[in-house]
Amino acid sequence: FIICQFVTRHTGPETALPSSSCTDCDTTGGDVITVTVGATVPTGFEHTAAEEVKEKIGVDARISKDRGRIYFPITTDKLFQVHLLRSVDNLFVVVQEYEHYQFSESKEETLIDLQQLASKLPWTNALEVWKLNSTLKKKKGHRRGGNGSKGKPNSEAHDATAVDNEQQELPQPTAQTDTCSQDVEEATPEAKVIKFRVTCSRAGDKHSFSSNEAARDFGGAVQEFFEWKADMTKFDIEVLLNIHNNEVVIGIALTEESLHRRNISHFGPTTLRSTLCYGMLRLCKPQASDIILDPMCGTGAIPLEGAIEFHNSFYIAGDNNDMAVNRTVNNICHIQKRRADKGSASGLPIDTVQWDLCNLPIRTSSVDIIITDMPFGKRMGSRKKNWDLYPSCLREMARVSRPGSGKAVLLTQDKKCFAKAISRMGGLWRKLHTVWVNVGGLHAGVYLLKRTGALFGQTPEDVYESRGPVERQEKDDTELS
Amino acid sequence: MKLLTHNMLTSHVKGVIKGYPLLIKATEVKVNEVEFNPQFVSRMIPKLEWSALVQAAEELGQRQDLPSDLVPDYETNEEFLKKVHRVLLEVEVVEGCLQCPESGREFPISRGIPNMLLNEDEV
After folding, report:
1. B47, A289: Cβ pair inside 8 Å?
2. pLDDT in the model for residue A3
3. Best to test chain B binding among A335, A355, A357, A405 (most B CBs inside 10 Å)
4. Which stretches of sequence are listed as region Disordered (chain A) (predicted)?
5. Looking at residue A444, which CATH number applies to its domain?
């Protein structure tokens, strides 16, 4: 290996990495350049993410055919704004995009093409943005998500023959309240050799090669070209090679760990990632002074994201489970402490109650929005329990919702059971919209419902009172036999 | 438990007709700073049971000079809104219990969490 100093490297006009002694400048060379930034978002919430980009950055985002990704232009003087986005999991700067990449017939030729690509790509601007981004993160004292691990540190490639190549969400148990400061030693670029890795994701049935092979060969060519050092775990630059059928995108990562678990320090078995919570909240458009209930809050991920991002509303998080309510309170306290440490008013507009969601201790017609992640029956609860649970839930939620203006945003994987339950509730709930999402590898639906104007106690659904425990047990058995 | 939440909570013990408002017996109360938003407060007031709020604040010794009836034009009365803000969001019951006004049944509050679960026979 040749060890080269970052500042003195010049292999050609395309790859000259700008040296800058000014770490306070917003731009490295003084000129503002425009680049395309890509973001990965929870599948199904591409439109909500694009909405957020329009709102916070003021540009139109393009939704990729490869689900779970959006692209938008940004100028380097506004780069910091991408880190304010709450609906994105990961961010990267695009080096080059090919909408219709022509793959060669054989694997050998294809891989050679990829190798040759490395020296032909327009790296300069993307690398400038990467560098700028690194200084931004250092200044911020970049806050990490609650998830301590780096996700998949050993795999650089993942294949999918299906179009959807979403990562598996594994429950991550963590006990520490202070998981925010995970120190990654960032070498000052001026002093040491650059370390990098290539991550390739490939989807499509017609490719002659695997993502491992592409990553290996492309990575090898990149290494040779820049004379960087390959390092799978302690890298400065992560080069992304995304291949989705004939769409090929080469990018450089701007986020190290996925931001999707940012608020949670105390996980439960089914904690939803914050980006998904944010997407659900945006769907129901919380207004000032809305009373928002999560009657099955688990670890409180949804109401907590709401209390932070849509803080002009008031959140009541509830669950029947001891551990759940305690974890929710722990998560709230963790955030409040972090805010207090920064010197701001720490109190959040959220409370936690232990309750039975089929018998809510809440005044009738007093809630504006109900938002929750309903038990899927795979990791928690059971399909059998859902048959009874869903109708009782929907009925009780209708009772506490404000007639005419109340809304519900419900996430569930048990689509069949939900469809059946909702079909009998036409007098109380109207379906407005459904978003199909992927949660931990399971296909689920986010249903947006509107409460009808009918007062509770007057429609056929609610006059048919829930029967006593013995009758319910019998019905349970006969219905499913 | 904040008093805004208390304002929404009701007893649902079987057979009880007037389970609202729940009486508060607090053994530990704390006051937490929450950012003041006048619009939030003024739009929340119509959603509240005002007398229940005053009664609850009284029970905690935090009423100060909150009036029994709403003042007219409270929307623009910032001083008034600040008092309401404090009582709604900043005062918290950490330990104690809530009591059903009709049946006397007590629901414990621990770490700020009211436990409203009923036993089999109470449902």
Report:
1. yes
2. 37
3. A355
4. 138-181
5. 3.40.50.150
Mean pLDDT for A199-228 is 91
Phi, psi of A140 (to 5 degrees): -70, -25
Distance of residue B113 Cα from the nearest chain A Cα, in angstroms: 5
The predicted-structure confidence for B17-33, as pLDDT tens digits, reads as follows: 999 999 999 999 999 99
Please tell me the distance in Å from A348's CA to the nearest CA on chain B: 7
> What's the number of CA atoms in the CB half-sphere (13 Å) around residue A398?
29
Q: Is residue A470 part of a domain?
A: no
Q: Which residues does chain A have within 8 Å of residue B9's beta carbon, measured at their own beta carbons?
A: 353, 361-363
Report the C-alpha gap between A37 and A467 in whole angstroms.
56
State which residues form the domain around A245. 34-138+193-253
At A38, which CATH number?
A: 3.30.2130.30
- Is residue A164's pLDDT more than 90? no
Report the chain B residue with the minimal C-alpha distance to residue A344. B35
Residue A406 and residue A369 in contact, taking contact as beta carbons nearer than 8 Å: yes
pTM exceeds 0.95? no
Cβ–Cβ below 8 Å for A346 and B33 = yes
**What are the chain B neighbours of A359 within 8 Å (beta carbons)?**
12, 118, 123
Q: Could you tell me if residue A347 is inside a domain?
A: yes
Which residues of A fall within a CB distance of 8 Å from B122? none
Query: Is A356 in CB contact (< 8 Å) with chain B?
Result: yes
Q: What is the ipTM of this complex?
A: 0.97
Whether the pLDDT of residue B111 is over 50: the answer is yes
Inter-chain CB proximity B117 and A320 less than 8 Å: yes
DSSP state of B86: I
For the purposes of burial, counting CB atoms within 10 Å of the CB of A375, is it exposed (0-12), middle (13-18) or buried (19 or more)?
A: buried
> For chain B, what are the domain ranges?
3-114
Residue A472 phi/psi, 5-degree rounding, is -65, -40
pLDDT in tens, A66-82: 688 999 999 999 999 99
H/E element, A307: helix A301-309
Cα–Cα distance for residue pair A181/A80, rounded to 1 Å = 20
Q: Compute the mean pLDDT over every residue in chain B, rounded to the nearest whole number.
A: 95
C-alpha dist (Å) from residue A422 to A94, A418, A473 = 44, 6, 22
CB contact under 8 A, B112 and A355: no
Tally of domains in chain A: 2
Provide the shortest C-alpha distance from residue B65 to chain A (in Å): 23
Edge-first strand listing for the sheet containing B106-110: B23-31, B91-99, B106-110, B113-114
Q: Which residue of B has its CA nearest to A352?
A: B113
CATH of domain B3-114: 2.20.25.10
A and B: number of Cβ contacts within 8 A? 85
